[in-house]
């Protein structure tokens, strides 16, 4: 059975062109880029090219790019650096809908005596910029706001967020893990100090990421050891991963128009097809500012996990939008923050497409999913034929 992969916000397939660039560096050109000999030096030059490619995608200087292992590392490094470089400032501002890479660090920092303010979102997942203005204090070291949400695809107004933070004297970090290759950004005009991306979300392999640190911003490394990355991230470089990320960035920049026309049209076809075929369905997220590849659909009165299992039988890979993790009945923190009613939150499914999806993929889902929902609603205690109709609690 063919796999219909629509879980690209979780991870992506390595692009064959990316893999091809990487392959010689596993077994033929395996030198250490820090070595003095020519063999290692050759790899060093390829890393320089990869850094230039990433910098070109970001429109920043190559020296502003630090390679690391993943988006989580970039987020942690930025937040910790901002606090370590400003010891008199012990407050950060972030949002209630960040990825755990930011949220769990913020909670950890609170336990260590720092203070954190978590901005709320409205029912479409949007921020209130006045709330942000009010939250920034004289001792705010950093504002860390994600560029786009991984569950709903809602895109935050990072330009405005960064301007507000700068005016009030705070550093700014944005988690752009879901944005690279999906919407264009330009670090010459976007006034953030830190920006984190991850290779495996952009058709490069897992285990590589990059953190932009603006020139002139004080930086405190997270990893101490060797002098790699000009002393800013110790540890022998993941050369193959970095080469892959460089190539993936080059392809991502060339494909951004395709992403916002062809991939977006596929997403819209899927969304419209399902909305037309399944009553009591709604879209989670901001319809006007959304990643072009993402739709989070809430099917009332069904369990997301049951939908996923039944879709799996057709080879369809989607995600329950991180809802109901590991058997708990709690909907995801993002849907809770948005106040999505209980009966919708539990039936939320995220489809995230990529340039490797086809119209045929979309049409399989439009054909197979409506009968699945119908069947599940028939057997659901909360379904239309059921006895128990819970009040719509906003969890
Ligand atoms: C918005 C966001 N931030 C951070 C991460 C973490 O990235 P990584 O898996 O590379 O650590 C993810 C991954 O799901 C994400 O979606």
From TrEMBL:
**Required co-factors:** pyridoxal 5'-phosphate
Keywords of the record: Iron, Iron-sulfur, Metal-binding, Pyridoxal phosphate, Transferase
Return the PROSITE patterns for the record: AA_TRANSFER_CLASS_5
Q: Read off the Pfam families from this record.
A: Aminotran_5
Would the keyword Iron-sulfur be found if you checked this record's keyword annotation?
Answer: yes
Superkingdom, natural source: Bacteria
Q: Which residues form the Aminotransferase class V domain?
A: 4-364
**Listed SUPFAM superfamilies:** PLP-dependent transferases
Q: List the GO biological process terms.
A: amino acid metabolic process
- What is the enzyme's main class? transferase
* Gene3D superfamilies in the cross-refs: 1.10.260.50, Aspartate Aminotransferase, domain 1, Type I PLP-dependent aspartate aminotransferase-like (Major domain)
The chemistry this enzyme catalyses reads: (sulfur carrier)-H + L-cysteine = (sulfur carrier)-SH + L-alanine
Q: Which GO terms describe its molecular function?
A: cysteine desulfurase activity; iron-sulfur cluster binding; metal ion binding; pyridoxal phosphate binding
How the protein assembles, per its UniProt entry? Homodimer.
Entry-linked NCBIfam families: FeS_nifS
What the entry lists under PANTHER family is as follows: CYSTEINE DESULFURASE (PTHR11601:SF34), CYSTEINE DESULFURYLASE FAMILY MEMBER (PTHR11601)
What name does this protein carry? Cysteine desulfurase
What lineage is this protein's organism placed in? Answer: Bacteria, Pseudomonadati, Thermodesulfobacteriota, Desulfovibrionia, Desulfovibrionales
């Amino acid at each position: 059975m063919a796999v219909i992969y629509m879980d690209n916000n979780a991870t992506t397939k390595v692009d064959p062109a990316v893999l091809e660039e990487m392959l010689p560096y596993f077994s033929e050109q395996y030198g250490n880029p820090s070595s003095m000999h020519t063999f290692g030096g050759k790899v060093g030059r390829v890393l320089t090219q990869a850094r230039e490619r990433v910098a070109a995608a970001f429109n920043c200087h190559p020296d502003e790019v630090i390679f690391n292992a993943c988006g989580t590392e970039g987020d942690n490094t930025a937040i910790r650096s901002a606090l370590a470089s400003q010891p008199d400032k012990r407050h950060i501002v972030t949002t209630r809908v960040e990825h755990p890479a930011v949220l769990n660090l913020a909670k950890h920092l609170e336990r260590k005596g720092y203070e954190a303010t978590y901005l709320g979102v409205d029912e479409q997942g949007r921020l209130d910029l006045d709330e942000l203005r009010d939250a920034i204090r004289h001792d705010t070291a950093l504002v860390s706001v994600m560029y786009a949400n991984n569950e709903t695809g809602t895109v935050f107004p990072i330009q405005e967020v960064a301007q507000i933070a700068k005016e009030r004297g705070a550093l700014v970090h944005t988690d752009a893990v879901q944005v690279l290759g999906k919407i264009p950004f330009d670090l010459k005009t976007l006034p953030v100090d830190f920006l984190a991306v991850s290779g495996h979300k952009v058709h490069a392999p897992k285990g590589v990421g990059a953190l932009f640190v603006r020139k002139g911003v004080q930086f405190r490394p997270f990893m101490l050891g060797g002098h790699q990355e000009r002393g800013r991230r110790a540890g022998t470089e993941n050369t193959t991963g970095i080469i892959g990320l460089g190539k993936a960035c080059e392809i991502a920049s060339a494909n951004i128009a395709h992403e916002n026309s062809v991939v977006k049209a596929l997403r819209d076809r899927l969304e419209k097809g399902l909305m037309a075929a399944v009553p009591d369905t709604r879209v989670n997220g901001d319809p006007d500012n959304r990643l072009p590849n993402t739709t989070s659909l809430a099917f009332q009165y069904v369990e997301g996990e049951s939908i996923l299992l039944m879709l799996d039988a057709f080879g369809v890979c989607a995600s329950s939008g991180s809802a109901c993790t590991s058997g708990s009945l709690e909907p995801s923190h993002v849907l809770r923050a948005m106040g999505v009613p209980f009966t919708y939150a539990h039936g939320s499914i995220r489809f995230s497409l990529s340039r490797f999806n086809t119209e045929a993929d979309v049409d399989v889902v439009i054909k197979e999913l409506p009968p699945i929902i119908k069947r599940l609603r028939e057997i659901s205690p909360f379904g239309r034929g059921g006895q128990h109709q819970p009040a719509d609690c906003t969890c």
